[in-house]
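pasting for ref
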Amino acid sequence: MWIKASAIHRDVEPSPLNYLFRMADRMLLDTYRQHARRSERDTNWASVYKSENTALADRQLIAREQVNVVTQRLRELGPRVEYVFWRYRLEGVEQREIAAELGVSLSTVEKDLRKAYGSLVDVKAGFDAV
């Protein structure tokens, strides 16, 4: 308060003492409001952070379980279908190249992809039903 009062370059007459008391009162009120806002902000942040972390952990767990279900379903379709799907969808290899790698026709690769897609649509429908 002393620094603020010494920076005043005008006359505070008729009552400098009243001016100082009003200045002290306002500084106290500002400090109180600042503390209240800080406390509210920290409380809100903590509640949001906690709920987001809990929700994030839940979503991560659900996502892992879904990946395991999808992986298992692809394995059930057979190694060739699984290989074709992974190479095409995840590695970005063209269907013609996959067909050449496996020594099968392009039509066979397309059929394998349709099997995988159909199976994954069923899996997704199961996820959405839950």
